[in-house]
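[09:14] KT: can someone run the structure on this one? pasting the chain below
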Amino acid sequence: MVTEEIKKQLRAAVGNEYVLDSEIDRFGYSYDSSFVSIADKNQPEVVVRPATTEEVAAVMKIANANGIAVTPRGTSSGRTGGSIPLAGGIALSLTRFDKILELDEKNMMVWAEAGVRTIDLYNHCAAKGLFYPPDPASWKYSTLGGNIAENAGGMRAVKYGVTNNYVMGLEVVLANGDIIHTGGKALKNVTGYNLTQLFVGSEGTLGVVTKVLLRLIPMPKVRNTLQLMFTELNDACDTIHDMLQSGVIPAAAELMDKISFQAVARHRKLDIDPAIAACVVVEIDGPDTAALDEQANKIKEIAGRHAVKEVRIAGSFQESEDIWAIRRGLSSAIGAMAPNRFGEDISVPRDAFPDMIRRIRKISEKYNLTIAVYGHAGDGNLHPSVLCDMANPEHAGKVHHCIAEIFDEALAVGGTLSGEHGIGITKKPYLVKALGEAGVAAHKAIKLSLDPKGILNPGKIWEN
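[09:31] RB: done, C-alpha cells below
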C-alpha cells in the first residue's frame, strides 16, 4: 500500500509536481491501447514521473523497501495490456525522458532516453543521412522504451529486422534500485551474458530501461511504392514468396485480405473492383532510380506469373503517399465495421502465411464472426481482427474461443503468439502452450533472480 509517508518520500525523490494521486490522474494511467476492460482495480495508487536515472533508482529503492508494485510505461500505445497497473502501486511514467543524447555519426550509433518518440529519433538521424528502420504503426507517439519492452517491429521488418536488431546497449534500473549498463559501441562483445537482449522484449518485468544505444545504417537514397491487386489470395501470397526467393527483398510487403481492403475502400470512398480478393503494398528502396526500376520490373514480372489483376507503380512522392494511405487507414476502417474489435498479432513461418489465412477463414465460418486479416506478409506477421458486438450475448460467449483457436492454429503451423505486440495480459493464458511448462519455469527463474519481490510489472506475461 502506498501510504502518505511513502508519497512524501516519492515527492522528495522526484519533486512535488511529479507525484500525482488525484482520481483523474490515476485513471489516466490505468489503461493502454489494448482492448482490456478498465476497472477500478487497474488504477495505480500513485503516478510518479521522474526525469533522471537517479530519480528512477530512488523510486525503485522506495518501492523495493516497501514491497510496492511498479508498472513502467511510456505513451501506452501497447496492444496487450502490458502497461496496465494490475496490482495498483506506482505507475512509473518515463515520458520526461525525452532527450536524444548523442548522435555518433562515425560509429553510426545514437544514445537516447527511453521516452523519446520513435518518429523523432528517425527524423533526427535522417537529417544526417542515417536510418533507424523499426517503424511500428504507432511510431508517431510510441517511445523507444516501449519499443524495447515489446521488441517492436513494423512494416520494414521484412528487409531490416525489428528493434532487437538495432539495440547495442542499455541503461537499466533494477528492481532494487541498482543501475547497470549493458553492451556498448563495440560491434563484437561476448563479455558475459547478453543482458542487453535479455531486457529487449521483457515488457518491463525485469528492469526499467532509461537510456538506449541504437545502431544505425545509411539512409537509402531513393524509395518507391507498388500496389498489386489479385483476385485470389493465394496468388498474392505466392507472389511475395517468389519475390523473396528471387532475391528482390522489399523494404515492406503488406498484405490486405478482401474484408480489410474493402473496408478501407469504403472508408476512403475508393472505387474498387469487387472481384479483388487481396491487395499487396510493396515498398522498394535502393541507391538510385535504376535500381528501383530493376526491382519494380522484376516484381511486376513475378506478379504477372501469378495472375495479378492490376499493378500500380507510383510515379511521384504523392502517388506513393496515396498508396500507403490505404494501408495506414486500415485500423480505423476495420474498427468502424463493428462495435467491438479484437486486433490480434501472430507470427508464422513465411511459407505458412497462406495456410494460416485459410485456417482463420475456417474459424470465422465456424463461429460466424467476421475476421479481417492483414499483415506483414514478407515476414509472416499477421494481424487478424475479430469483429463483434460484445453487447450481443451470442458474440460475447464465443469471441474468446475464436481467438484461442487462432492462437492454437498459429502454434500448429510452427508459429508463435506474438510477432511484435508482446504477451502482456491478453495472451498470458496461452503461454504454456507456446513455451511448455519447463520454458515458463525458466522465464520465472530469470524473473526471480532479478526481481525477487516480484514488484516489477506484476501480473504480466504468465499466470502467477
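[09:33] KT: thanks! The radius of gyration is 23 Å.
[09:34] RB: yep, looked fine to me
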